[in-house]
Design goal:
With about 210 residues, this protein is mainly alpha-helical. About 55% of the residues lie in helices and about 10% in strands. The longest helix is centred in the C-terminal third of the chain and has 35 residues.
Length: about 210
């Protein structure tokens, strides 16, 4: 059974959730490129040229390579939307390679979150076999299976990390609880009292923190 409550939503995911809420995107069926572009005031064009996005003043545009398969065009749209959403303006061809790589990674991460929002994924019925979940994600969100598998692995890692973090917190709480004199057994309290008495009798004094 999947323990969804252990998943920690990132700040970027929170921003995407807020963005979708502001334009009425609530279900996988709402994740349509033309609909999102229209509601965000972005000009969307399909041309026989490499996919790109640009912004000039209030004018924003996304161009998608129409020679690509439909699911790749869809992936490219959300990737380019990520560039606009995160303010990656300017001619990237003039940027250092390391910086361009960082912007591309950020746009790819945005695309995964925006294409397959966790808030929607967790509403899907759990297949009989967990290994079938990526196929369900790919079908519902109309994305390549490889991308669905990446997102599913990411979600599972986040759930495992959340479970481990909570276990560590509980372990530390138990350790501090046992260390507190208020939680000692009567025998431990008596031994501690006797130890203090001996120190006082020897004139050493005792410091209790």
């Amino acid at each position: 059974m999947l323990e969804w409550n252990f998943y920690k939503v990132t700040e970027l995911e929170k921003r995407i959730i807020s963005l979708y809420a502001s334009i009425g995107i609530e279900t996988p069926e709402d994740l349509q490129e033309s609909l999102i572009a229209k509601r965000l005031g972005i000009k969307l064009r399909y041309e026989d040229s490499p996919s790109l996005s640009f912004e000039k003043g209030k004018y924003r545009c996304i161009v998608i390579d129409n020679s690509l398969p439909a699911d790749e065009q869809r992936k490219h749209f959300f990737h380019e939307l990520g560039h606009l959403f995160q303010g990656h303006s300017g001619d990237q061809s003039t940027f250092p390679d390391l910086f361009k790589g960082l912007l591309e990674e950020q746009a790819e991460q945005f695309a995964k979150y925006a294409l397959m929002p966790y808030s929607m994924v967790r509403e899907f019925p759990i297949p009989e076999y967990e290994r079938d979940f990526p196929y369900l994600i790919a079908s519902q969100f109309r994305v390549p299976l490889t991308l669905a598998k990446e997102r599913w692995d990411q979600i599972k890692r986040r759930i495992s990390a959340g479970r481990w973090e909570l276990a560590c917190i509980e372990r530390d709480r138990e350790r501090y609880r046992k260390a507190s004199p208020a939680n000692w057994c009567d025998q431990a309290k008596e031994m501690f009292r006797l130890a203090i008495d001996r120190k006082l009798q020897k004139g050493q004094g005792a410091i209790i923190r």
